[in-house]
Amino acid sequence: MASTALTFTDRDAHRAWLTRQAQLPAGFRVGTTRFEFMPREAPKPAKMTLTLIALDQPTPDFAALFTRNALPGAPIIVGRQRLHEPTLGAIIVNNKVSNVCAPGGIEASERICSELAKLLGLSAGQILPSSTGVIGWGLPVDAIVSALPQTSAALTGTSILPAAEGIVTTDLYPKIRRAHVGAGSIVGMAKGAGMIEPNLATMLVYVLTDLAVPRAELRAALTRAVETSFNTISVDSDTSTSDTVALVSSGRVPCPDLTAFETALTQVCRDLAEDVVRNGEGVRHVIRVAVSSAATVPLARAIGKAIVNAPLFKCAVAGNDPNVGRLVQAIGKYVGAEAPSTDLSQLKLRLGGIEIFSGGVFQLNPAKEAALVAHLRSAELYASAPPKDGVFTAPIDFPPHERCVEIEVVIGHGTAEAVVIGGDLTHEYVSENADYRS
Amino acid sequence: MASTALTFTDRDAHRAWLTRQAQLPAGFRVGTTRFEFMPREAPKPAKMTLTLIALDQPTPDFAALFTRNALPGAPIIVGRQRLHEPTLGAIIVNNKVSNVCAPGGIEASERICSELAKLLGLSAGQILPSSTGVIGWGLPVDAIVSALPQTSAALTGTSILPAAEGIVTTDLYPKIRRAHVGAGSIVGMAKGAGMIEPNLATMLVYVLTDLAVPRAELRAALTRAVETSFNTISVDSDTSTSDTVALVSSGRVPCPDLTAFETALTQVCRDLAEDVVRNGEGVRHVIRVAVSSAATVPLARAIGKAIVNAPLFKCAVAGNDPNVGRLVQAIGKYVGAEAPSTDLSQLKLRLGGIEIFSGGVFQLNPAKEAALVAHLRSAELYASAPPKDGVFTAPIDFPPHERCVEIEVVIGHGTAEAVVIGGDLTHEYVSENADYRS
Prior knowledge:
Two copies of one chain form a homodimer.
Chain A: H1 11-21, E1 28-37, E2 46-59, E3 62-66, H2 74-82, E4 88-94, H3 105-120, E5 127-131, H4 141-153, H5 161-166, E6 175-181, E7 184-191, E8 204-212, H6 215-227, E9 244-254, H7 258-278, E10 286-294, H8 297-308, H9 311-318, H10 324-338, E11 348-351, E12 354-358, E13 361-362, H11 366-378, E14 405-410, E15 416-423, H12 427-434
Parallel strand pairs in A: 4-5, 8-9, 10-14
Antiparallel strand pairs in A: 1-2, 2-4, 3-9, 6-7, 7-8, 10-15, 11-12, 11-14, 12-13
């Protein structure tokens, strides 16, 4: 299953499409508030948006997966405990401060849950907290608690769009995807770009559905869907301390077919995963690597990841330079270090459908080189322009969805395959990450 | 053992010091030639330098270590065979074309060895070939063979400096280090920057000594020395298809003490390794990570590598931004994914000697933040300036050796330690690598 191809030609068309995607499933409401606060660790005020997702009735059917980073944020630690609670009633999300390894971080998360619970008639254990933002700063708890009544009062049940906009940080546009199964729907939203959302180092994904799927099946389906969606993307190889993917069912609509549900859920997750990369900071080329005839799926995926994480190859792509030697370097590096028993003698490589490597040697000539350059140029999301102050910024506020650098890696020994999606390494990435806090 | 601290204030002082380091050990001569050729794969001519290192007498005492990349260059494949030969008589090095996975690559390397052998009165098996440069291009064998007589005629036995300059590609300055043991010397030279020499994707290191150390002891000492020198650096995490470290003894001077020899060899390797990072493409901050009280040396080294390879942290350092959350992210990512049983509860972190993390939480405040910024600024090798055409280039041609970002990671469970050296991620790196071939 590939992600869903989209072909927007302007921002308004993208926005109109997003609005149509955004209709909330039955049983959910969302509300947001934005306010200013003074961080303890910094000399000037900052702004935060609180986003509340509330169920009309608490549900036993919810699932969540969290980062594997060994130094996780306080909301991750609290969230893991919430998985054992009988029901979930709401999710409260703040941006700007990630609440990771900050003194009193768990107490801060729990106090916000407890104050919100009073407003919503729930218990603190029924509320899942999420935070995204600067790692190391503490949550401005008093300011957040003061903003809770307004956030709760803002709850409406029409569209997830305000929430998708509320949870973002440096995202260029909100990310929403949906699918239908029978009379029900699955609506997902994402912020950031996972490992590639470097300013705030966090990916948050919330998938809401009105389809009635029991907790055990819901959790198993989410684990499998994430494995072939969010776990197959990487832009800068960094792993957030706050990554969260949550799936909540309001149970309002009978689910006619669990297999159809999982297929639809997987599609929503893959579409959101590609959105996350396509909106990655500084990403000017989305790179899709299809690895086939590998011995195992983990090997296929690891080779794909090695390619999209190789800085030299990423730089070459950024420059529309088909420096395929760097692609071969990336494969050889991974196999030599991690899977030395892999036979690469049948290795075939194609870039933009053009064969560049087979029979153990490169298959290159000046005509192919020109065609490869043309493929890279046609896949560029926007042209980079050096600004006068030296700070590169992406000049787009909607993603040209159809453009993609296509790489095929045929190992030639096995039947396993995997698709991995990543991005290039650009001046825009360095500008966004070399000086954003100051 | 740390690398040797140097404190040059200008290019001329550095050059004078290099010249003093460059005196060849007894029994070696070097010669170089530069010429133009037309690559088969590209539309315009290119320039290449041939560098010849010749022994006055073939020696049985030589050692070499090669890349672990699973798609190595032809000279690596030939070089591995040379390790089984009874003696070595010469090393021939070309830059510009790396001869990796090019059709007929091994035959090309062997023909050059064989033509050179005729000129030197050796057999082809006594010659170690090395190539560095673009991956995917084939060697211009006829042009190289035509240049061999002139290269051989240029052999002189005074200084290694012409060779250290001949093997470079995008290096800003030649890299030479020496040590003495008794009446003998160990002189090493390096080109490139290992994983961080992205244009040409190759690190080449040659260490020459007149000290008589038998082959077995020489090879064992080199393996151990490389483990704590070249294997502890990384700038962009890419692993070259051509990495080579060779050590050759002419045996002219009795070695008074094998332990002293290995200590001196290790010092030369560590000094060259730091030179390689300090001259890494786009490196504006050298980052030294000292990891201590870890359970094992491999764990300590892996945590150090995770830090110097974390793109977000590297970008922060480039911007003189003490975004220590990204440092914690890097440690947590590695431990969570690769060593989840590691206890991080006693983790302590210092940056520039200032404590930033202990007791499970950050130790930050505005005054510390100012001191951290000052440390990063003082460690900057040069100021970055956006040029009018958008292409960033390093404005230095000698390295301020004493400047370094100092990071201490205390795990708190064990006695193992390791030092890892890396660099930041800058606009200069992206400029050099996003468009160099065209």
